Amino acid sequence: MTKFAPANLTSHYAVIFTSQRGDNLEGYEAMASKMMELAKQMPGYLGVESIGDESGFAITISYWQDLASIKNWRENSEHKAAQAKGKSDWYKHYEIRIAKIEQAYSKK
Amino acid sequence: MTKFAPANLTSHYAVIFTSQRGDNLEGYEAMASKMMELAKQMPGYLGVESIGDESGFAITISYWQDLASIKNWRENSEHKAAQAKGKSDWYKHYEIRIAKIEQAYSKK
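YS: structure for the whole thing
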C-alpha cells in the first residue's frame, strides 16, 4: 500500500493538519483510525498522507476535490464529535490549513 | 523549539514535499540539514514542519510568502544541486505540491 496520495490531479485542495498530542491518549488511536476510514467514504475525498513521531507530533494531509467536500467533511456529525474530543482531550496544539494546490511535480 | 510553522498569517503558500527514500543514503542527512538551514535564509521563508518515519517516508512542508519566493528558492544553485542528487540518488518517489493557503485554524 502506498503512503502517497494521488497526484497530478487537476484543481484540488489539501487540508494540512499538524498536531501535537498531550499525555491523555485514551480513545485516541481508535478514533483516529475510525476517522481515517470515515473520511475515505466522503464525497470528494482524494487521499491522505500521514506520519506521526514518538513525541506525539504528527502531520496529516488529506486531499479533497473542492472546498464544498471539505466543508461537508468538517460538518459530518461523527467527525464533529471527534474534533471536539481532540480539542478538549487529546491535542495540546494543532494547526489546520486549507490550501488550494496550484502546481505539482513528482518522481515515481 | 516548536515543530510548528507560524500560523494565522495572511495570504501565503505551502510547498508540500512527500518523499520515499531508497537504500542509498550517502550524504543525505548532511544535505538535508544544509538545505533546511539554507531555506531559512531565503527571502519570503516563513517556516517548516517536517517528520520522517523509519521506512524512509517523510513529509516536509515549507511555508513561503508568495510564489516568487518559492521560485527563487527552487532556483537557488545549491538547492538545485541538492534536488538533482535527490532525484538521481536518494528518493525512490516524491510528490511536490505548491498550494495557496486560503483558511487557517489553530489550537495553541
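YS: worth flagging: Chain A has one domain: 12-101.
IM: good catch. Also Strands of chain A lie at 12-21, 45-52, 57-64, 91-107.
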